[in-house]
Design brief:
alpha/beta; Rossmann fold; 2 domains; six-stranded mixed β-sheet; four-stranded antiparallel β-sheet; 9 helices; about 30% helix; binds adenosine-5'-triphosphate; ATP binding; transport
Length: about 250
């Protein structure tokens, strides 16, 4: 297993935000994390990334207890694209993506052509080539999101954690990022709000009130009953005539 959480919990000011989450993500698997607002998805991702220290339970990354790995060791294996990762520093797009190479550099291994290659490839992958010299603060929300993803790709991780990576993107770039995630072959945990997009994941984990309440294939998870119980909507299923795939349509429940 590349990523394993066992009885993971986090509380603050006497309130439990994540409770008893146990899950495993296999090498190369894409696990979608879904759940209503405030259900604990971002907090769970921060726990899995090592940014947040668990109040209980543990995380293992590539067989190592996360608590025993240094930030640098973690960053050589895992990259995290947080939801709001703004910076007030005056940096260019290229500077932002170069940060992804930091875990691989030291006095004996200074910046080299290999690092230039990773930065250029990452920028091209998110269709942001040509933006290298632009100031970060001048970018649109969607452009910033794509640069964040490029920074994570430049890190050359084995595990990728993404918190709503499509929320600022236009439909072309939403589909491009989802296709990229599927093609990268990395062990991935991705929080998504669009349940039709979540259907493309290998498995889905459903959070509700800080607990993991369901884990399984999209077909097994996205049933009208679960969608009603967890998201308080009525869902009807349609079939896309182009490829026969299942499409969900949602109706408000009064
Ligand atoms: N540092 C904190 N202090 C107090 N409450 C917090 C803290 N971090 C998170 N919470 C609360 O924990 C709950 C879960 O938050 P989290 O951001 O993990 O949810 P989420 O499922 O990612 O939500 P969304 O879909 O709205 O992004 C929310 O009610 C939030 O207000």
């Amino acid at each position: 297993m590349m990523l394993r959480a066992t009885d993971l919990g986090w509380h603050t000011r006497g309130r439990a935000i994540v409770k008893g989450v146990t899950l495993q993500v296999a090498r190369g698997e894409v696990l979608g994390l879904i759940g209503p607002n405030g259900s604990g998805k971002s907090t769970l991702l921060r726990l899995l990334s090592g940014l947040l220290k668990p109040s209980s339970g543990r995380v293992e990354l590539a067989g190592h207890p996360l608590s025993r790995l240094s930030r640098r060791d973690i960053a050589r294996i895992l990259a995290f694209v947080a939801q709001q990762a703004d910076t007030s520093d005056r940096i260019t797009v290229r500077d932002a993506v170069e940060l992804g190479r930091t875990p691989w550099l030291d006095a004996l291994r200074p910046w080299s052509a290999e690092d230039d290659h990773h930065v250029a490839t990452a920028l091209a992958t998110v269709e942001m080539q040509g933006f290298e010299t632009r100031d970060w603060i001048t970018l649109s929300g969607g452009e910033r999101q794509r640069v964040h993803i490029a920074r994570a790709l430049a890190q050359c991780p084995q595990v990728l954690l993404l918190d709503e990576p499509t929320n600022h993107l236009d439909i072309h770039h939403q589909l491009a990022i989802l296709r990229l995630i599927a093609r990268l072959g990395l062990t991935t945990v991705v929080a998504l709000h669009d349940l039709n997009q979540a259907m493309g994941c290998d498995r889905l984990a459903v959070m509700q009130g800080g607990r993991l309440i369901a884990l399984g294939t999209p077909a097994a998870i996205l049933t009208p009953d679960l969608l009603h119980r967890v998201f308080a909507v009525r869902a009807t299923e349609l079939t896309d005539p182009e490829d026969g795939s299942r499409v969900l349509r949602f109706h408000h429940v009064t």
